[in-house]
Amino acid sequence: GEKGSLASLAVNIGGIYSDLGDVDSAMRFTKEGLELFKKMGDKSGTATALNNIGNAYFDMGVADEALKCYLEAYALRSAIGDRYGTAMSLLNIGDEYSDMGEPGKALEHYDRGLAIFTEIGEKRGVAHVCTSMVEFHLQAGDTGKALECANRAMEICLEIGARFEEAMTRHMLALVYRKKKDFTTAAEEFDKAITMFSELKGGKDLAKVYYHYGLMSMEKGDAAAARDWLSKAMPMFEKMGMKSWTEKGKTAMSEAEA
What we know:
By secondary structure, the chain is mostly helical. 87% of the residues lie in helices and 0% in strands. The longest helix has 19 residues, at 2-20. The chain is globular.
């Protein structure tokens, strides 16, 4: 019906604004879509809208609100038997717990998401979870497991031609090699990720790559290069309303300028 089309349109426009990095507009349109889906009793549409609002809160660094949206979306998707959606929600919940410093809960949700993606033969989803687990293992200080996950994700990405997931995996590989103090290989992966995200218009992810490249330059004792990379990332974070990343960038920049 007309209401359904309007609701979908609002959520889709919200998605476009999100890709462009305009968090406020993304939030406004997606919330409009959410209200329409709720009025119609459309559980699938409601879950999609909640998931997208959760993503916006995640980028803004508002952890509790993001988690609330992800959990609501998960409950709806489970109830209607949407396997793919349920697995995506589990992945998002895992990312949020990982970000909040709750590794046990993160791993539990990653494992459950991975099991569903594997069961339904969703290779892109498997790659996605593996990529998220790289960051998780790095935080836990296990570079071996991190590298294992990154290599598994990369294998799948190249096999199915998943460009965006490949770019994400290259970013993660760079972080693994940086942790191993293999700065040359890390730089190669950072450069590939930058090229790919630029082509794919992955603004949020591109800004994060610049930020991490800046941190590595600082580790190598090259403050000038660090300032260059960070000054690329900072305006992007600010423009996209990524508050927690903007704060991280400011902290790093003041260290690079010291």
